[in-house]
Fold these 4 entries.
Entry 1:
Amino acid sequence: MSTLQQVAFRAGCSVATASRVLNRNGPVSDEMVRRVRRAAAELGYRAGGRTGNGRPAIGVLIPSVTNPVFAASLSSIQNRAFHAGHSVLIAQSNYDPAQEPDAVASLLQQQPTGLILTVCDPERSMALSSALPPTVLLGNLPTTRFTAAVATDNFGAGRDLTDHLLQKGHRRILFISGHFAASDRAKLRYLGYIKAMEAAGQQPLAALEISFVCSLEQLDLSDTISRLDPTAIIASNDLLALGVMGALRRQGFSIPHDISVAGFDGISLGFLGEVSLTTVEIPDGTMGAAAASLLLDMAENAAPPRHLIVPYRLRSGGTVRNLAN
């Protein structure tokens, strides 16, 4: 088994410097970080914590363990990690920026090889303000400091879905979302909606923001519908779109005859209703696998951080009525 002294010798640095790099407890230049990690990888040296099964671990932060989107990502991360000899540690923030630092701190206590994080807003997250091991943002755009990220073009997805509804003859399109402070992905989708509406010469409506973790079976849209009279509603994710459809039906509306509904993500639940949900499919499983591969490459092979964009696909379903005919 290789030792820290051997790693330091191969990297051409002191044992103290090698220790700072591998234990992430002090300032070291980026070049030295790459050299020490490369030496450790070549020698098979592991400084990270291990789970009860003896494997090194990857720490993963997601907003919610109940959303199928993150379940798909986690499954792919776990599969990729398992084949690389790693376990996965999971924490959730409940879409609350204030919970993120404690959630990340709990992961760091296990001394993971690295972290895969989906945060509410990477530019404002306090969880990203301290020294972290190799880190990949999943679903978030990269920042100046955290340049490794795997995401899709949420702005483009919001624009394209809105264009689809406009082409179907809809003009009063309402955007319903979880709180934007809880999801930069939802905010980008709304900004894409605004762009498409303005490009078409239409007045965008102010978004209706509700809690991502509210009881959707109790969602009441009666005041909003009577006040704004939309012909179509875009929800910021598919779970919310299904909750919107339930709320509309409780009010006696028929979908899509009275009001059309569309969402984002492409979760399998959207296929199970009387009509399939019009949605933008986001390949969350592919994104999770890519994030895990990128993280392991950075942590074990000193690979440079990269920003990977995964394409989305618009899937036209039966929940949008064509008003143009």
Entry 2:
Amino acid sequence: MQSYEALRILLDGMLYMMALFSVMSFLQQRKAIYWQYAVYIVCITFTFNLNDQDYLKVNYLPGTNFLISLLESVAFAMYISFAIQLMNIQENDPVSYRILRYMILVLILETVVDCFLFSFEFSPEIISGSYTFFRFILAGTALVVLPRIFRLRQAVVSYFIIGTFLFVIGCLLALWINYIPAIFTRSPDSPFSFPITYMELGVVAEVLCFTLGMSLQNRENELEKIKVQGQLIVQLRENDQKQQKLLKIRDEIARDLHDELGADLASISMMCHAAEQQLTLNPELARKSIRQMGETARKVIRVMREIVWSLHSAHDSAGQFVHRIRETAQGLFDPNTTTLHFDVGLTDATIPSVMRRDLFLIYKELLHNALRHSSAANVYISFEIREQQIFLSVRDDGQGFDPEVGYHGNGLASIRQRAASLNGHLAITSHASQGTRATLNCPLPA
């Protein structure tokens, strides 16, 4: 066995094993990039074997075998398609993508020209010249694209650049020695006297680089999948938290409707029935019942407006909240002799609806407590947002109370619970005959 033949068997075996690996990868992953690369390897290896037969001919000229030229064109087209997909060139570098598409058009044009030249039996010199011309165009264009691709700064690009560079160098050396008789001796004992040796060594080096590159890409894809899965898990957890908040809001609305509106609506029904009975027996008492129904109905409407306001996204601004707390305080204390004092800071911050609802209910409960229990001449209300913190304060100069005992009912416990749900701190200080001060500060979501 001669040295050239032994080298060719070794190199062919390596390439066919790589082609088999690509086919198996395609069957496993169903990605076009693998079968295209397998076609490229098989086609290019077949051309090497056909070239070996042509080298035995007298006056050999490259490109004078139509089948070799056709197989090379198919191989290069698969190679270009492989490169486009491997590095996602269409998205990462549209200019290089257009150049590579033009290279495929050059290959198609070359095939058409070859069909014409072979069909009309042009001289071998013209056919070989045409072949060499198109091949140098492809090699030169590839050397133009490579620096552009290198600027993509992707890990897989480095392997592609090195592999393509070695392949192009092998092709150029193979074309070059065809025209240097001192080297192109085609001696079986001298493998490097055959142009195919340079091309096949370039292809083998390229295949090894691409294999490493595809392995790296697969690794990156796996890491990306893990990253995406992690993001999905975080998103699912966030969605679950949002769902829990929505359920909490729904439960609170149901509780408010039951606690604040249920009793009032039931009393309206009872007063309506009583008024109906009193119309003939005691008209004055019936009129009193009707007036009570009107007052209760207005209270129901007010409570409904407060619930709707606290949930409506159009009222998320701090300015809307300030307007609402002013309106609420004035509505509560309007028939009273108590003087209201407001100290509010203007801001363009946004208060989320879930937070705004609890904040407003705390504020409203503090106002009710001041109205019912303090007998105060003055009530001081301050509201400010600074450094992503909300500060709300309600102070009166009334009779005060013992914070350890609290008000009657569960009002104080309710506002402490709401303050805790806001991750806030509620401080209440009070002394007999010295008034009461309630201060709430809580973080504003970023």
Entry 3:
Amino acid sequence: MTLKAPTHHISAKPGEFAETVLMPGDPLRAKSIAENYLENVRQINEIRCMYAYTGTYKGKPVSVMAHGIGTPSMTVHAYELFKLYDVQNIIRVGTTGGISPELKIRDVVIAMGACYDTNYINQYNLKGTFSAIPSFSLLRKAVESAESLGIEYKVGNILTTDIFYPEDKNSQLKWKDMGVLSVEMETAALYIVAAAEKKNALSLLTVSDHIITGEKTTAEERQSSFTNMIEVALEML
């Protein structure tokens, strides 16, 4: 199958995405980022409400696009952005559930690696176990950006899972004994696609709830108030 842009999932024309795309899961967070941080904004996608925008931040071009929930949605959009739109860098700006006692609500996590229980990697027919890691250049920029802004952060390993409601309620907590900080549903898949396409990827995450303490933020907070990770991402440009 020969792919070309626009696609069934992205209606933007070639050249309408910047080289760097920020990707939250929530379409309303994408809209909020575009409206509150970017200048000269234009909407370039609304298929399936996966809103995408391109504008500038401090004069530098940047795009923002929602990726939805889970590995399938993330990989479809990331693959097409890398493959068809010449996107070089995808920075996920999403939420994560804390499992480490070191974390508290609203902490920023920079994902240095992603353990996973998704089968997405199987299509590559590797004879071993692939390590899902980010691009070091983006990781270094994120740390430098956070420190320049005075924003506290944690760098470490996270877990990407395909299961939001596990039958074994303790299954995700077992990962904390291996130093895993938090759990979410997309990062490992993003890192795998980026590696296969020889592009760059990083996940900046905000702790929206904590599995141990039971604390959680509201949907409204997740859409509009997780500003620290967004500012870190934008200052990386």
Entry 4:
Amino acid sequence: MLGFSGSARAATPPAQAQAPQAPAAEPATPRMPVTLQVNGQARPLEVDPRTTLLDALRERIGLTGSKKGCDHGQCGACTMIVNGRRINGCLTLAVMHQGAEITTIEGLGQPDALHPLQAAFVKHDGYQCGYCTPGQICSGVAVLAEIAAGIPSHATGDLTAPPELSESEIRERMSGNLCRCGAYSNIVEAMTEVAGHQTARGQA
């Protein structure tokens, strides 16, 4: 067929649809070596540097006593003791604790050899569903050590004197550990009993 110019025009073939390109694979995050001293045992690992200490203990080592609750550092279910101080395992990275001394609930005691605070929790019914209990006990052990060391809290009235073992001190120091079952008064009783026994031994 002739066009307006009087010359024949070749039909232009439609553009061929191109096959969709697969997205380029992201480079794998390099693993980092770290050795954690967990409950008195060296545990060498290679982890993604973004791995939290809680996930390393639970998923890589198999110590599932420390619980993942909120995963935002708000409930205290993942509390563990690192170099003598209690921390939230979900808020810190495993690679930050090369060589650190880490104690989890498994390292405090076992069913046939309970830690005194574990036994007191059983005696005073300091748990109900039990989900928060490992963090409560680890935090409680560290709290009693803090009071014994004379470290003040927001509830300490006289900062020049050693803190007293009072209900207000215990409640303030344990306020970062939530119990949805509401066993707070029983937890205070358990901690008070253990602290009394420790004081009596210290005075003997």
